[in-house]
Design goal:
The protein is of the alpha/beta class. The chain is built from 14 helices and 23 strands. α5 crosses α6 and α13 packs across α14. The structure holds NADP nicotinamide-adenine-dinucleotide phosphate. Homodimer.
């Protein structure tokens, strides 16, 4: 896979196109395991291989930019087969679905309300024929399909166990998706024994996503008249010589039915699926998680992550990224309200009313009212869900803004070129875990007096980070050392890579050691002092210690971040 710059494209359906077509701007692209099968020169599958050198085809959510098809107009939001590119010309618009719901995140139309959700729905209800109280096992259970199968089975009154490849996913299955139990198959030396442990009475329904040794182990644990829905075998996708299955004979004595299926064969059920899923999602009975990557340039890594288990859940690509969950819109509104409250906007005084007055929350409604606010960019203009906050060079003043953790889908925060001051939040990593662009440069941010250090910032998706020209101190954390030195310049107290300046031995340690030594000395001379009982000598010693602390330790605690040349020496 390679990313190529296709140059400028006219944003119109070309004249003389063979038939009606639509030009779309891709918003979200789906990263699915079946695409691996299209990367082989194999023509016997239900879907043809990709053509080398052409744009990768995949499911996506897109906005119509231009249309010569009577069923679509510019601005329509659609889902369907598109390309891994910024804009796509779709010459079979009939296959596109128009998205009507505005209160469910658009990206869910690639997962919960899209192909994976539909696969789970038809696979579970049509192929597994479930009955209340049955024992259900789901492999690749945290994946886009698996997480929904497990929840449908729970809604149906079944006992459900899932397997996944990390302990984090295992916890997610139990805590978020309500599986009765889950295990990490990578930590189980004997899969047959593990399944026996979780299903002492055997398995009625196996929703097969992985194939290989797991299928063999399941066959040995199936009950009489069990059903196996073969949805996929992700462990076998890249193999030229797929693993053989040894226990197939179990199908005979146990009268097990094992059936493969392709979701698109059941497309007539799509409208009823959509109603069912939307209702259960809105009622809070079905949860959904997805794992997004930022930008087309990260598409290959996102794709590889599907097979290495890197993605937490379902993989999806967007120009930017986020995690979504219930009630996100209202929390984003609150995020902006809190932020606004914590601002001191001097422009008010100059009658150049910016944020304080233009961010008016009185009539915003639920459908994207905040998206027109100065500096706010939303994921979709009809959804109150903040994608970026670009508040650079607005003359804003105040502490590090409050409430940012409520902008849970935010991926860009630019506060550069303002007059923010006070310590940086110590919880940036928890407050905005999905931020990939963070620009705090050219302000007066400092560090907490308590520890005089830049807080640990560990944001796994961070692509760009800039704190140049502030009043920061201390060693640059390891997690930030890969960013250019220029992005840390202008902070006289910062040290360590990527800056040339080495961090000196910490003064605090030194003073502590000195104080301990003085205390030891004091204890050693205490005996003779006791004998002599000379209060004046004790007073002199105590005075010496006190004087020492006042002279060196207090300035360090008190002025760190204010008296730069001095505290530079003390904290460095
Ligand atoms: N029949 C149909 O119509 C249809 C439609 C859609 C999807 N499918 C199939 O359904 C399956 C699941 O799709 P999905 O979209 O839910 O997948 P997904 O969200 O992309 O999840 C894939 C997960 O599979 C697991 N995995 C990867 N390699 C593995 C291996 N070698 N052994 C065991 N597990 C492995 C990984 O999770 P862990 O870290 O937990 O291992 C990975 O996160 C795939 O096989 C796909 O091809 C079929």
């Amino acid at each position: 896979m390679a990313l190529v710059d296709g140059g400028a494209v006219p944003l119109r359906v070309p004249e003389g196109a063979a038939g009606p077509a639509v030009l779309v701007k891709n918003l979200y692209l789906s990263c699915d395991p079946y695409m691996r099968g299209r990367m082989r020169d194999f023509h016997g599958s239900y879907i043809p291989p990709f053509k080398p050198g052409s744009v990768i085809e995949g499911l996506g959510v897109a906005r119509v930019v231009d249309s010569t098809h009577p069923g679509f107009v510019a601005g329509d939001i659609v889902s369907g087969m598109t390309g891994w590119e910024e804009y796509s010309l779709i010459d079979k618009p009939e296959q596109l679905n128009k998205i009507q719901q505005s209160d469910i995140p658009l990206s869910y139309h690639l997962g919960l309300l899209g192909m994976p959700g539909f696969t789970a729905y038809v696979g579970f209800y049509e192929i597994c024929s479930p009955k209340k109280g049955e024992f259900v096992f789901v492999s690749a259970a945290s994946g886009a399909v698996g997480q929904i199968v497990g929840q449908l089975a729970k809604l149906h009154g079944c006992y459900v166990v899932g397997s996944a490849g990390t302990n984090e996913k295992v916890e997610l299955l139990k805590d978020k998706f309500g599986f009765d139990a889950a295990f990490n198959y990578k930590e189980e030396p004997d899969l047959t024994a593990a399944l026996k442990r979780y299903f002492p009475e055997g398995i009625d329904i196996y929703f097969e996503n992985v194939g290989g040794p797991m299928l063999d182990a399941v066959l040995l644990n199936m009950r009489m008249h069990g059903r196996i829905a073969v949805c996929g075998m992700v462990s076998q996708h890249g193999m030229t010589d797929p693993a053989g299955i040894h226990n197939l004979f179990c199908l005979v004595p146990k009268r097990i039915s094992m059936k493969g299926f392709i979701q698109s064969d059941y497309i007539n059920l799509f409208p009823q699926f959509l109603d069912y899923m939307t209702k259960h999602y809105k009622d809070g009975k079905i949860a959904y998680l997805e794992d997004m990557s930022i930008g087309l340039e990260n598409a290959p890594a996102a794709f590889v992550g599907l097979f290495s288990g890197g993605a937490l859940c379902f993989g999806c690509i967007n120009c930017l990224s986020s995690y979504f969950d219930h009630g996100i819109s209202s929390s984003d509104v609150q995020c902006l309200k809190d932020l606004k409250q914590s601002l001191i906007d001097p422009n008010i005084l100059e009658n150049d009313l910016e944020i304080k007055s233009r961010w008016n929350f009185t009539d915003i409604g639920d459908n994207g009212g905040i998206c027109g606010f100065t500096g706010v960019e939303c994921w979709h203009p009809n959804e109150n869900r903040v994608l970026s906050l670009r508040l650079g060079n607005l003359g804003l003043e105040g502490p590090f803004p409050r409430g940012l953790e409520l902008c849970a889908s935010m991926t860009t925060l630019d506060l550069s070129g303002n007059n923010f001051s006070g310590p940086l939040s110590e919880h940036i990593s928890e407050q905005m875990p999905y931020v990939s662009f963070l620009d705090l440069s050219n302000n007066s941010f400092s560090v907490r007096k308590r520890n005089c250090e830049l807080p640990a910032i560990n944001l796994s998706r961070l692509i760009s980070f800039n704190v140049a020209e502030n009043s920061l101190f201390g060693p640059i954390p390891d997690s930030l050392q890969s960013f250019p030195a220029a992005n840390f310049m202008g902070n006289p107290g910062l040290c360590g890579a990527p800056l040339d300046k080495k961090c000196k031995k910490r003064f605090r340690v030194w003073i502590h050691v000195r104080l301990v030594r003085i205390r030891e000395m004091f204890v050693r001379i205490q005996k003779p002092l006791h004998r002599i009982n000379d209060a004046s000598i004790i007073g002199t010693s105590a005075g010496f210690i006190l004087g020492f602390v006042v002279a060196f330790y207090f300035p360090h605690k008190l002025f760190c971040g204010r008296l730069q040349p001095y505290t530079f020496r003390v904290c460095g």
